[in-house]
Amino acid sequence: MSHHPMKELRERLTTMGLMKKPTLKSWTKVIALLGIVLSLYFVHSQIPIYWGLLLIPITALFTTTLSMAGHEGVHASACNSRAGNISLAALVFPLFCGLSMEYWRDKHNIKHHAHPNVVHQDPDIHSWPLTFSQEEYQQSGKLRRFFQRNLQAYFFWPISLLVGHLMRWDGLKFLLTHPFKNKKKRFTKLWALDLALMIAHFFLWIGLPLLLGVPWQITIGFYILLWALVGTYLTAIFIVGHAGRPIVTEYDENWRLQIETGRRIKTNRLTSFFFVGLDYQIEHHLLPSVSHFNLPKVAPIVKKYAEERGWEYEEMGFFRALIYSTAFLHRAWKTPSIQIDSSTDEVIVPA
Length: 351
Fold this sequence. Notes:
Elements (H helix, E strand, L loop, with lengths): L6 H9 L7 H24 L2 H26 L7 H16 L3 H12 L21 H5 L3 H9 L1 H9 L2 H19 L7 H23 L4 H27 L5 E4 L2 H7 L3 E3 L2 H7 L5 H6 L8 H14 L6 E3 H14 L6 E4 L4 E3 L3
Helix pairs in contact: 2-3, 3-4, 3-11, 4-10, 5-9, 8-11, 10-11, 11-16
């Protein structure tokens, strides 16, 4: 560990106090956001439907921001204690969002963070029927290849309306099949908590309003539309962090991989509030346990760290990144992946 490439960087951040988790700030933000979204939901119940349709993009934006706070809890970057992080993640993910925190930990923390933009390893670049790599395009069937060449960039954003609901479904499947896949730890306390809170989610969002006399059309319609918009907002937040950055087949240095497959999004203090740290995608990937409250101070240090080693550190504004990421979907099927070889300080395009 004395020669670990991250040792000096971590020591500096620790000395500056940037590795500490501001527990009080994290809970204050979550509680404030919960108060905002509950107030917005109440307003929706008191106004005509046509006014509600005009308000719902704002409601979905704050709902998305609260949902992103659960991401911090699962990364254990919100609180100093394990119990605090689990409590925050459980409140936000399975109870509020209906999203399994154990599913998210497996998909996001374990698979995506370990291998960002790596072919066959990062689940975020393998999403049927889309392709983010030339390799996957070549392995697709004729009909799917036609879609990827000619249509995927146009259908991507309409498909994003399904993301919130599909992740919830995938999480439920993950929980229900877990006891049959992991024979050593079939029924853990976290598994039971996750499942119980997901059931509570559906009762609070659908069962309770119906019991209180809210028409089923309004209850179901509001739930579907709200979480559809949340799915699109989440897609916009996540895609700008990685889309259009190199797709990798092989690499020999994970730290360089974390930096060169990510993108820093330039924001101001207001817009950064809604990203909950994912505008600092590079820093978050390199140091996932750092609180998003500390990332603005960490960013210039990481940027200098990358530039001193000759690694590419990309940053751009949100709307430019959104356009760039969407344009990438037009050419993803024919964009070759690369190999990162740190011994020669080169990137290699396979023949």
